[in-house]
Amino acid sequence: xxxxxxxxxxxxxxxxxxxxxxxxxxxxxxxxxxxxxxxxxxxxxxxxxxxxxxxxxxxxxxxxxxxxxxxxxxxxxxxxxxxxxxxxxxxxxxxxxxxxxxxxxxxxxxxxxxxxxxxxxxxxxxxxxxxxxxxxxxxxxxxxxxxxxxxxxxxxxxxxxxxxxxxxxxxxxxxxxxxxxxxxxxxxxxxxxxxxxxxx
Length: 200
Fold this sequence. Notes:
By secondary structure, the chain is α+β, with helices and mostly antiparallel strands. Helices cover 38% and strands 28% of the residues. The chain is globular. The two termini are 46 Å apart.
């Protein structure tokens, strides 16, 4: 029997629970519809981290090939724009995985992206993040950034910092939209980089 069909006891001996239910019952169907609509948005757009279909976990060396191929696929479009390969395409992911700083995004148990981050002073430093090109536009990258921010909060840190290349103009706009503030621009490790910080 559904909640909306639950009978209400009558007469002077009706319980307090029944009387409360009488007032709540008109909203029961509306609440269920709202929950269903929320799930529908998550399945079409950004995946919710508590969804049974989406998860983030720490990478192991068994994931090395997936991480490397994702970096190559996600960053190769910037080679012509920058005149050189972006740093993540040459990163030592094996060492980073052994350090425990690489985390994977999985959808329906299939690899869809990764993020690299570690503690640095009073903040977490986000080294790189990438999503498979065929999986872009689904909010996975934003979920990975959100995961980094939640980790920083749980660790009692004050902020998340990151950098991106100034040629990656779409990333500059995205980080600003997500609340990151540009703090400096400089040549760093052979790249023209823009540094961002988001206070938590």
